[in-house]
């Protein structure tokens, strides 16, 4: 089978993206008949979970959202293609869905106002067919806008997370293979350096070697955004390391790939741990093993990481610990329906 270039795969996927701008569900189903394999493995965040084929995905995930947000619109800020170390080809999309939340959705009450919901979606191609999807939507972001926040307060800034400051996340330009390799190595070295914490603490991770002084770490709603290395530590890293010191990565499930200045990662799951110490994000410590799904994008600039977009399936974490987040949402909003 001939190898499709990055540009060809982006063009192959483009009509499916464009049909989500003015959101034509029937057109998406027809386009998907040619784009997806019949038995494509669809892996979505909680509460959608695993599905087979694009039609089940559209009926289960998108149709109810479109019912609640009739003017639903998709806006991508990053679309990148690359190959992981297993020679698997991935197309990664970072952006947000927006529109007016006119009706309740997933027990989240209607606001009557425009809402925004981040997405990280990774599509694995075999030839020109999509055979797997791994996707996280920032559902807590919608809960926050609907004023039914079921979690503890975020340590970072909660806002409408922007796309790349360079505005170059979407293009149909030829790949600079040297830059691609350099970008991936920077992120790999940074990730490996994080493993030095157990022996030498925070200083041993050498964050200032990899992270730009004005870097932005864009975490999911519930964690928030941190500015600079100290902001990253205050917003996310300190609580994460203290609450889950026994975390272990899962290379078999991880997929890292790059294109020019951009690097993407998906892990389903990508890490296992238990929550201990003083807990994490208000979750009390316990001895129950859990896994974590995390989908990331990095943008490098002059040999340093300048921006990092991160989505974690927080609802999946809570579910493993026996907490029904949607039951909390119903409790918070029940008086609105009386």
Automatic annotation (TrEMBL):
InterPro entries per UniProt: Cyclase_SnoaL-like (IPR009959), NTF2-like_dom_sf (IPR032710)
Name of the protein in question: Polyketide cyclase
Coiled-coil residue spans: none
Gene3D superfamilies named among the record's database cross-references: 3.10.450.50
BP-aspect Gene Ontology terms: polyketide metabolic process
Pfam families xref list: SnoaL
């Amino acid at each position: 089978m001939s190898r499709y270039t990055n540009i060809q795969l982006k063009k192959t996927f483009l009509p499916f993206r464009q049909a989500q701008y003015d959101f034509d569900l029937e057109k998406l189903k027809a386009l998907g008949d040619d784009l997806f394999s019949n038995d494509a493995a669809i892996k979505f965040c909680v509460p959608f979970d695993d599905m087979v084929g694009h039609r089940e995905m559209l009926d289960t995930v998108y149709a109810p959202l479109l019912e609640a947000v009739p003017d639903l619109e998709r806006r991508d800020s990053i679309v990148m293609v690359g190959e992981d170390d297993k020679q698997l080809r991935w197309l990664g999309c970072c952006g947000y869905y927006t529109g007016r939340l006119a009706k309740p959705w997933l027990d989240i009450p209607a606001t009557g106002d425009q809402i925004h919901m981040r997405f990280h979606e990774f599509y694995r191609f075999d030839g020109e067919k999509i055979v797997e999807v791994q996707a996280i939507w920032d559902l807590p972001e919608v809960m926050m806008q609907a004023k039914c926040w079921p979690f503890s307060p975020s340590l970072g800034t909660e806002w409408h997370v922007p796309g790349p400051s360079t505005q170059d996340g979407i293009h149909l330009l030829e790949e600079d293979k040297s830059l691609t390799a350099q970008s991936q190595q920077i992120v790999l070295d940074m990730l490996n350096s994080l493993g030095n914490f157990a022996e030498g603490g925070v200083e041993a991770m050498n964050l200032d070697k990899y992270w730009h002084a004005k870097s932005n770490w864009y975490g999911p709603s519930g964690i928030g955004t941190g500015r600079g290395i100290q902001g990253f530590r205050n917003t996310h890293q300190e609580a994460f390391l203290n609450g889950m010191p026994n975390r272990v990565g899962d290379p078999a499930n991880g997929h890292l790939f790059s294109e020019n200045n951009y690097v993407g990662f998906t892990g389903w799951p990508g890490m296992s741990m238990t929550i201990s110490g003083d807990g994490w994000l208000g979750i009390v410590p316990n001895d129950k093993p859990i896994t974590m799904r995390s989908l990331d994008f990095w943008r490098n600039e002059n040999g340093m990481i300048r921006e990092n977009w991160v989505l974690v399936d927080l609802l999946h974490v809570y579910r493993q610990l026996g907490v029904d987040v949607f039951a909390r949402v119903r409790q918070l909003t029940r008086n609105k329906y009386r």
